[in-house]
Amino acid sequence: MLTIEVYGMKLRTCLSLAFLAAFLFACGGNGDGEPDATTDSGSDVGSDVGSDTTDTNDGGEEDPGTSNDPGTQQDPGKQEDTTQGFLITPGTPQNDLEMVVGADVRTYRLYVPADYDPANTYPIIYQLHNYSPQHYPEQQPIYASSDALVEEHGFILVLPRANWTGSGYSWMSQPFDKSDNFLVELHELLAGELSIDPERVFLIGDGNSAQYVSRSTRFLGDVYTGFAFLNGAQQSVPDASKIPENKIYIGTSLLEDYQLTYGLNFADALEEAGWVPGENFAINVYPGSNPQRYLHLKNAVRWLDPSGFPDPIEVTGSALTPVELPAEAMGSTKRITAFVAGTGGTIYAVGLRNIVLMRDATEGTWSSVESPFDTRDFYSACYGNQGLWVGGTENAIANMASDGDTLEKYLGAAASLKQDAANRKPGLMGLSCAGDEIWIGASSDVAVSVDGGASWETKEGFNPAPGAGSGTIVDIATSGGGEGWLLAMDGTVYHSTDGGINWNEPEPDFPAEDEQEKTAWWLEYSSSLGVVPWQGMSAISSPEATKAVTIGASGTIRVRAEAKVWNDADVPESLSAPTTGATDGSGETFAVYFYSATNGCIGGQDGLILETVDGGATWTSVDAGPGDDISAIYCDDDEILVGAAHGAIHKYTKCAPVTCQLFCENGFEVDENGCEVCSCVE
Predict the structure, then answer these.
(1) Which residues, 6+ apart, have CB-to-CB distance to 426 below 8 Å?
(2) Contact criterion met (CB below 8 Å) for 295 and 72
(3) Residues 17, 27: contact at Cβ < 8 Å?
(4) How many angstroms separate the CA atoms of 649 and 644, rounded?
(5) How far apart, in Å, are the Cα atoms of 468 and each of 59, 81, 107?
(6) Rounded to an integer, what distance in angstroms lies between the CA atom of residue 181 and that of residue 71?
(7) Which residues pair with 433 in a beta bridge?
(8) C-alpha–C-alpha distance, residues 73 and 69, integer Å
(9) Inter-residue contact 89 to 110 (CB < 8 Å)
(10) Cα→Cα distances 604→208, 556, 627, 633, Å
């Protein structure tokens, strides 16, 4: 093995065949003989949630990793003479480093901290890129943001390149065990020459590569001490008894249908096998979109290795009070996703893991409503003339009549909804009701009834320009009168004025007919996740006719003033953010609720709560104190309810102004709702 020394640091690297003639060496390696995990796909005990049986990339296409021998295909991202035999300079990321594994030349990117000292040991992160048809996938802008882990927190960062499969780069064609495993041999190479802390070796993936990482927890537990998979996991429920007890972090998004369920199933399997939430595994359900952004990578690394980060600030002084809920509504994978007001002061809440709750208007207590489904994750709810409607994963829709007390399956609209791009039943991401109108926004289709469910108008597939993931529907809204609004994952808003038959007025405007321009826009969007305006929007509401309010990334709130005219709302200065440029996720807003044409509320990151009294043009902060990310919100003239992690509901009571002529040196007393009364603290 040739060893090159530069800047006082050693690193072995294999040279290409061109160099072999001059230096006469080669490198490679075999595994340790563990069972071949490439035959394990889907073989763990359990049942598949979806109708498909093989893992797919997050774009819904057939997994390119199913190629018989992808490693032998020519990587078009390589130039013939790019094999590198030189060393990294600490503080400078180096691309296109190569090594030989079996018969293949494999490529990786390496970044070592500027203050690297071989006398110290360093944590190392192997971050796997998502499936990508683009060349040099590990060098896309989204992964360059990971460099902050090196610059700010002292990690060594490695970004290996997956196999080229003929149509793209996919980790699902990589062996899961140690035999001819590029990742294992790469770590052996780096661990032999860099000063790596053996207790702090982490493997992280997102999307397509997250599926690979989730399966690797079973076979590579003696190589890595921690795993994180973001926005993806194996589809079959794992046999957790076969997974070595390392640290596992699962990050997923409410807006990623199916991937959400896979991640929750994995977490439930760990807990049922005796793993302890918060100790050796964690599940974080992010209420917004794009959980593979740097924010979520940083959260994962912070949990896996908190020593590389400042101590967390203790959260105190919150004005939110926890609400007592039935025991079955609470748990590590539970989260409230929607609130809706019924009649006579009744309030309903729905959530993940088949949760439906009802608050009694008289007693103010919460009770469970039995779900008609065995296993579903509920995304949405609305209340109209026909009572309560609830929507969730795999076409799940249920109705409880306004004069009834039983939630029943409803097949009228769900049966006609088109399957998604991977031939799976779509999740019902959004429901909106107004009188006899019921609008359903499934992840891949739309259904609208204007006669209380007697008949339905479906789009039979909805795929707005420019296509691919941007066509995924994340929310829908109506204020009645046959008018509705659709929000797609990339922030596109579509408008219908004829009961969902036709959809027009997309915002923002995409290149009209030029397919190459559309493709270029989509590639920019999918690779940057923060550069294109409007991407990352998460919810939409229509407080009155012709008006829509959409919320999402970096505190962005936009209000439709008239056709083709959208205005940025006035928001507190702390939330002001550019509508273009990369975002670290701070100030994001996730949930919006209007209880009149003028009055509404928004919930967001770290307990952020905003209110409006002018239809969304201006928003002010509610001083409720810090808290968890808010996944659902409800408000009226008296209170605000928010949904938080682990199924919790928190309440904020709006206090009426108190006229009092007392001077209280120690402040005023408060009542049971936390509101000040005209009485002094002794």
Answers:
(1) 257, 395, 417, 418, 419, 420, 442, 443, 444, 445
(2) no
(3) no
(4) 6
(5) 7, 34, 28
(6) 11
(7) 438
(8) 7
(9) no
(10) 28, 11, 10, 9
Q: Report residue 58 as tokens.
A: 């997050």
Residue 546 DSSP class: T
Q: Say whether pLDDT at 479 is over 70.
A: yes
The mean pLDDT of the chain is: 79
pLDDT of residue 418: 79
Tokens of 339: 């609130």
Angle at 385 between CA 383 and CA 389, to 5 degrees: 35
Answer yes or no: are the C-beta atoms of 309 and 302 closer than 8 Å: yes
Look at residues 77, 57, 80 and name the one whose alpha carbon lies nearest to residue 67. 57
Instruction: State the pTM of this model.
Output: 0.81
Query: For the chain, how many residues are written?
Result: 682
Question: pLDDT confidence of 523, banded at 50, 70, 90?
Answer: low
Closest CA to 218 of 227, 210, 205: 227
- Expressed in percent and rounded to 5, the helix, strand and coil fractions of the chain are 20, 30, 50
Residue 591 burial class via C-beta count within 10 angstroms: exposed 0-12, middle 13-18, buried 19 and up: buried
Residue 99 has pLDDT above 50, yes or no: yes
CA 614 to chain centre: 31
Pairing of strands 196-206, 169-170: unpaired
Q: Which helix (H) or strand (E) holds 619?
A: none
Lookup: tokens for 399: 């109705």
466 upstream amide cis, omega within 30 of 0: yes
Q: Can you say whether the dihedral through the CA atoms of 42, 181, 130, 254 is positive or negative?
A: positive
DSSP 478-511: EEETTEEEEEETTS-EEEESSTTS--EEEESPPP
639: its two tokens: 């209170």
Q: Position 267: which residue type?
A: A
Residue 676 has pLDDT above 90, yes or no: no
Report strand pairing: 94-101 vs 163-164.
unpaired
Beta-ladder partners of 440? 431, 447
**Residue 532 tokens, joined:** 């294109």
478 vs 51: which has the higher pLDDT? 478
Spell out the residues 6+ positions from residue 481 whose beta carbon is closer than 8 angstroms to its own. 434, 545
Task: Tell me the three state secondary structure of residue 124.
Answer: strand
User: Hunting for tokens 């440029």 — which residue is that?
Assistant: 581
Structural domains of the chain in order of their starting residue, each with its CATH number: 3-42+93-308 (3.40.50.1820), 657-682 (no CATH)
For 439, how many CA atoms within 13 A lie in the half-sphere containing its CB?
31
At residue 291, the pLDDT reads: 52
State pLDDT tens for residues 573-586: 877 554 444 455 56
* 216 φ/ψ angles, rounded to the nearest 5 degrees: -65, -20
Rounded CA separation 674/640 (Å)? 13
Alpha-carbon span 180 to 635, nearest angstrom: 57
**What is the number of other CB atoms lying within 10 angstroms of the CB of residue 8?**
9
Of 312-326, 396-410, 604-618, minimum mean pLDDT range? 312-326
Handedness of CA 63, 65, 69, 71 (dihedral sign): positive
Long-range (24+ apart) CB contacts under 8 A made by 191-195 are 192/12, 193/3, 193/9, 193/10, 193/11, 193/12, 194/9, 194/11, 194/112, 194/122, 194/124, 194/156, 195/116, 195/117, 195/118, 195/119, 195/120, 195/121, 195/122
pLDDT of residue 355: 96
Distance CA(251)–CA(244), nearest Å, equals 20
Cβ atoms within 10 Å of 561's Cβ, excluding its own: 12
pLDDT reported for residue 678: 86
Q: Which residues lie closer than 8 Å to 382 by C-beta, 6 or more apart?
A: 340, 388, 389, 431, 432, 433, 438
Beta-carbon neighbour count of residue 9 at 10 Å? 18
